[in-house]
C-alpha cells in the first residue's frame, strides 16, 4: 500500500500537472471506485464538470483536490489510493491506462486518469470542508469531514510531537501497532515502520508504556528521516502498482535496510534479518539489534 512518501509524491505531481485546470468532462468506467460517493456516479459527474481543480492537499495517506478555491466551506474530490491506486496525466490519444476506473478531461487537452487494479481505493466529493485553524504546506487550512479523525503526520508543520508522545505513553500496546494507528499518527505504514524501528533500534512489539521519552524522540526523528529520504527518491516501488502521475517509479526500495530483506545480513551487526507475521502483514527486524526487553 502506498504510504506517506508515495502519496506525497503523487500530491506534488497533481499540483504540477492538474492544479488550475478546469474539468471539462468525467467518464466513470467502474462504479466500484465511487462506492464512497453515496449519491452515485451521475451525481459525481454533475458535481465535477465545469469545476476548477484549485490544488492538491494531503492528510496522511488521503489526498483531496479542492474545487474552485482553497479554504474552509468549499468542496473537494477526496481520494484514497488503497493498495494499488494511481493517478496518471495522459494525452487522450494515448492507450487507456491499465485498470483505468475514472477519467477527468481537463481544459488543457490532457486527461487525469485514476487507475486501480485491486479497487480498494476510490474517489468521492466532500462538501463543506472543515476549518483546521492551522495553515500548512500539505493540507492548507481546510479538511474533508470524512477524515477529521485522521491524525496529522510527522512531516506536517503543525504536527505536535509532545502531544503524540503524551498520547503514546498513555497506551499499552506494541510500538509498531501504535505507529500504524492513523488516529494517533498518520502516514506511517508497514515499510517505513520497520525501517524506522530498525534505525532506532526498537523491537516492533516493545510495549509503549515502557518506552523512555528519549526512545520516542529518537523514533520520531527516524520516522521523519526515512520518509524524507524516500521522498527524495520518489518513494518506494516494488512493482508497477505504485508510480507517479507521469508513470515514473520510486527508487527508495534500493535503500531499504530491513524491509523485504529476510535472511540478508543486518547492515549494522551482520545477523540475518528475521521476518515474523504481524497484523496480516509481516515485520522485518534484526533479532540482535532489536531485542525485545
List key phrases describing it.
293 residues; alpha+beta; N-terminal domain of MutM-like DNA repair proteins; Helicase, Ruva Protein, domain 3; 4-stranded antiparallel β-sheet; 6 helices; globular
Whole-number mean pLDDT: 91
End-to-end separation in angstroms reads 30 Å
How many structural domains in the coordinates?
2
Q: Give unreliable regions as ranges.
A: none
Can you count the helices?
6
CATH hierarchy, class of the largest domain: Alpha Beta
How would you explain this protein's 3D organization?
- The protein has 293 residues and is of the alpha+beta class.
- It folds into two domains: 4-147, Alpha-Beta Barrel (N-terminal domain of MutM-like DNA repair proteins), CATH 3.20.190; 161-286, Helicase, Ruva Protein, domain 3 (Orthogonal Bundle).
- It is 23% helix and 21% strand.
- It is built from six helices and twelve strands.
- The protein has helices at residues 4-17, 41-48, 161-169, 175-179, 190-199, 213-232; strands spanning 23-28, 57-59, 62-67, 75-80, 85-90, 100-106, 111-116, 122-126, 130-131, 142-143, 273-278, 281-286.
- Strands 1-6-7-5 form a four-stranded antiparallel β-sheet, with helices on one face.
- Strand 3 (62-67) and strand 4 (75-80) form a beta hairpin.
- Helix 1 (4-17) crosses helix 6 and helix 5 crosses helix 6.
- It is globular.
- The two termini are 30 Å apart.
